[in-house]
Design goal:
The structure is a homodimer. Chain A is an alpha/beta fold and about 425 residues long. Chain A has 13 helices and 18 strands. In chain A, helix 2 packs parallel to helix 6. The two termini of chain A are about 55 Å apart.
Chain lengths: ~425, ~425
C-alpha cells in the first residue's frame, strides 16, 4: 500500500516552524509496519493545494493531509478537498452540535466563524477529534482515500492513533512489524564503516534487514531496519546480524539504541560508586557540560576545572604552576593524578590540548593529550586531530568521554581512530 | 520566480530525523526575499526520485535538492539527476583531485568508494563544498535549474549561502535590494515583543519594512526585512525603524546582526584588558563552554570551576567548605569575590542554582543566584525560573552571560524578565 503525506500551511513552508508533525506521523506509521513513500508541503494557496491533492490521488492508495482545518480564512483544506473530489461543501449538523457542546462545556459561546469548521465535502466520513474543534474527515480523491487531520500536534496525534491507523491497517490487510536497531560509535568514519560491514545484509533472509548510516561528527550512527511478521520473527532475523556488527565494530561501539555516551559513562561510574573530577583546556568546560547536568550526576561529578593556560591548570588542581611545562602525555598524567588527589574523586579525566596558532582553516590542528587517573593507576593517550577549530574541539570532547568509557569498561584507551593524523 | 525544494533520504522520509534542513533553507531564502512554493520529500528510491525531479522540473524555475551526495550505495542523487537530465554520469577530475587533496591534508588515503562522489551528470556546473567531500552541482531538468546540495547541515549552509543564493538572486533578476537587520534579545517573550513593537512597520513608507520574529529560547531574534532600490535607500528607510526598536527594547538588546552574546562579552572584556573567572553549578560548565573556546578567549578566560555541591564550590575557590550554607545572593557574592581573588582575574561570575527535587516536569523550577565581582565591588541578582530541567539550565546560562554583558556595559544587572516567576 502506497501512503503519502501532504503538509499544508505557510508557517511550515516558510520554515518558521520545523515540521515535527510530519516526522511524528511517519515514525508512528513505521511502528505499525506502514511506510510513507512521499511527502509534499504546500502553503495556504488554492492552486497548489488542488494540484498536490490531485497528484497524490493519482499515485497513492492512502493520503494523510495535515493542517488547514481551522476557522480562519487561510484554512482551505475542506474547500479544496471538495473541489478535488468533485463534490459540494455541506454543513455537517453532527459536527456543528459537537462544537456547540464543546464551547458550552467551557462556558463560552461559539464564535460565528467556527461554523466554517463544520463544512465538509458531501459524503465525507467524519474522523472524531475529542480534544479540539477541527473536524477530521475522509474522502476519496482519485484512487486514494484521503484522511484530513488538524495541525495542532495533540489533536493530530489523537486522531492518527484513534481513527486513521486502524483504517490504514484494515485497508492494507497485512500485519507486518518493523524494528529499528541502532549502534553508536566514535572513531570510525562513514565510508570506513560501510566497508567494515560489507555483506552484512546478506546474513538475514530475503532482504529483511536493511543497513543505513547517519554521520553526525564525531559520532556515527549505524542502523538496521528489520521487517518481519511480528517481533519474535524480527528478533530471530536480527540476532545474527547484530552480533556481527558488534564483532566487526568491536570496542568502537559506545552505546546502542537510545543510550548515549554520556549516559553510559554516568551509569558505569554509578555502578562503581565512583566519583569524577574533570580538567579541561580548549574544550572550555564542554566535556563537563555534556554530563554534569544529567539526573544522578549531582552525586558523581565532583568537580570540573577549566583553564586555557597550562600554569592556570596546574594551580587549579593544587600543583605548583612554576612546574607547568609543555602539554604532553606526562603533564596530562600529572594533572589527572593531582585532580584525583585534590578533589578526593575516585576517577579524574584530564584533557589537555595544544592548538595551532592563527586563523581557523581546514588544516588547523590540535594535539590532544589526555589522562585518566585513579588512586592506583593512570592511563593516557596522545592524538593529533586536524580539520579546523570546531572539528578539533568537538573531536577532543568525544575522545575524552569515549576514552573514559573505554577505561571504565576495561577496554584499551588507545585504538587508532579515523579522525587522527598519524605523524 | 517559482522555487521548489526536494529533500531526499530514508532518514527524513521515515521521520527518524526531523527535517531542519528544509526549514533552514526556506528561512534563509525568505531572508533574501525569495520564497519556496513547494517542498517534496522522497526516500532513497530510484523511481520516486526520478518522478520528483521530473514533476518539479515541469513546475518550477529553480529547484534545490538536498541529500543523496554521499559515498554509499543509498546515495542516488547524481545518478538520477543524470537520468532526469538525459545525460551520462562522468567523472569530474576536478572534484576527484579536490577530494584526494582533502584526504591528504588529513593524512588519510581516500577510500575507493569516495570516487562515486566525483561522478556528475555530463555538463553539470560544480558548486564548491569547502568543508566536505560531497560535490554540489547544478544542471537543467525540464524548465528548471536544479541545485544539488549535501545533507550534512554545515556543508549545506556553506553551499547555499556561498554558491546558490547568489545564483538565485541573479536568476530572479530583481532590481530591488534586500537587507535583513537583526536584533538579539534575552528576557522578552515573542508575544511581549510583538506588543512592544506595535505600529513599527508604519514608520517606513509603503510597506518596505517587514517585521518578523524567531524565538529560540532563551533568545529572541527580531528581524526587519527592508526592500529598496539600493543599499543607500535601504539605509534611509531603515534608520528610523531600527532606532525605534533600540528605544523600545532598551537594555534587552544584547547584540545585533551577526554578533553573539558570548562574542559581545569577550569583546567588552578585551576592551577593558580584563580577565574572567567563572563558577558554575547546575549549568555544569556550559557557561564556560560558550566562551572559553572562542578566538581571543585564551587571554581572557582565566579559569572556570564547576561543582554540583555547594561545599565543593567553596573548596574550589579557596573558601572553607564548612562555611558553605544555603544558596543565596549572599553566598553567590562570597563565591564570586573568592573566585576573583583566588585566580587574580579582574572579573568573576558565579552562577549558583538550587534545583527542585524529583523527576523532570513542566513545573520543575530552579532558583538562580548569580554574582559578578571585581576587586572593588560586587553585583548580584536572584531569579526563579520554571519550566523543566532543560528550561532552567538554558535560562540560567543565558542569564549569567547576559548579566555579565549588562555589568560590563554599565547597565543594571537586574531588570525583570518574562521567563522568571515572581514570588
Amino acid at each position: 500500500m502506497r501512503i503519502e503525506v501532504i503538509c499544508t500551511g505557510d508557517e511550515v513552508l516558510t520554515g518558521k516552524i520545523v515540521n515535527t508533525n510530519f516526522s511524528w506521523i511517519s515514525q508512528k506509521l513505521e511502528d505499525f509496519g506502514l511506510s510513507v513513500t512521499w511527502e509534499t508541503t504546500v502553503g495556504d494557496d488554492r492552486d497548489d493545494l488542488l494540484l498536490a491533492f490531485q497528484l497524490a490521488g493519482q499515485r497513492a492508495d492512502a493520503v494523510i493531509v495535515n493542517g488547514g482545518l481551522g476557522p480562519t480564512v487561510d484554512d482551505l483544506s475542506q474547500e479544496i478537498a471538495a473541489k478535488a473530489a468533485g463534490v459540494d461543501l455541506v454543513l455537517s449538523s453532527e459536527w456543528l452540535e459537537k462544537m456547540e457542546a464543546y464551547f458550552a462545556r467551557r462556558s463560552r459561546v461559539m464564535p460565528p466563524n467556527n461554523v466554517k469548521q463544520a463544512m465538509l465535502p458531501a459524503g465525507a466520513e467524519v474522523l472524531d477529534n475529542p480534544v479540539g474543534t477541527a473536524c477530521g474527515f475522509a474522502v476519496q480523491i482519485g484512487k486514494a482515500r484521503f484522511f484530513f487531520t488538524p495541525g495542532v500536534p495533540r489533536e493530530l496525534r489523537r486522531m492518527l492513533e484513534g481513527e486513521i491507523i486502524p483504517r490504514l491497517l484494515a485497508k492494507s490487510g497485512k500485519q507486518t512489524a518493523i524494528h529499528l536497531k541502532r549502534f553508536h560509535s566514535y572513531g570510525i568514519g562513514e565510508s570506513h564503516a560501510d566497508t567494515l560491514l560489507a555483506g552484512l545484509e546478506a546474513l538475514a533472509p530475503d532482504g529483511s534487514v536493511k543497513l543505513g548510516f547517519r554521520a553526525h561528527y564525531p559520532q556515527l550512527e549505524t542502523k538496521l531496519t528489520v521487517r518481519g511478521s511480528d517481533m519474535d520473527e524480527i528478533r530471530v532475523k536480527l540476532a545474527p546480524v547484530e552480533q556481527e556488527v558488534r564483532k566487526r565494530f568491536g570496542n568502537f561501539i559506545l552505546a546502542e539504541d537510545d543510550r548515549t555516551l554520556e549516559g553510559v559513562v554516568i551509569d558505569e561510574l554509578a555502578n562503581l560508586d565512583a566519583t569524577l573530577s574533570l580538567v579541561e583546556t580548549f574544550t572550555g568546560g564542554q566535556i563537563a557540560g555534556r554530563i554534569a547536568h544529567l539526573p544522578g550526576a549531582e552525586k558523581i561529578v565532583r568537580r570540573g576545572v577549566m583553564a586555557r593556560d597550562i600554569a592556570q591548570v596546574y594551580s587549579a588542581v593544587g600543583l605548583d604552576p612554576r612546574e607547568a611545562g609543555e602539554i604532553s602525555r606526562e603533564s596530562a598524567e600529572t594533572v589527572a593524578r593531582a585532580a584525583q588527589r585534590n578533589t578526593g574523586a575516585t576517577h579524574a579525566l584530564a584533557v589537555l590540548i595544544e592548538v595551532d596558532e592563527g586563523a581557523d582553516r581546514l588544516e588547523f590542528a590540535g594535539t590532544v593529550c589526555l589522562a585518566i587517573a585513579t588512586a592506583h593507576e593512570v592511563a593516557s593517550r596522545r592524538s593529533r586531530i586536524v580539520g579546523g577549530r570546531d572539528w578539533v574541539r568537538l573531536g577532543a570532547i568525544e575522545m575524552g568521554l569515549d576514552c573514559l568509557r573505554r577505561y571504565l569498561q576495561g577496554l584499551p584507551v588507545y585504538e587508532r581512530i579515523d579522525f587522527e593524523k598519524v605523524e
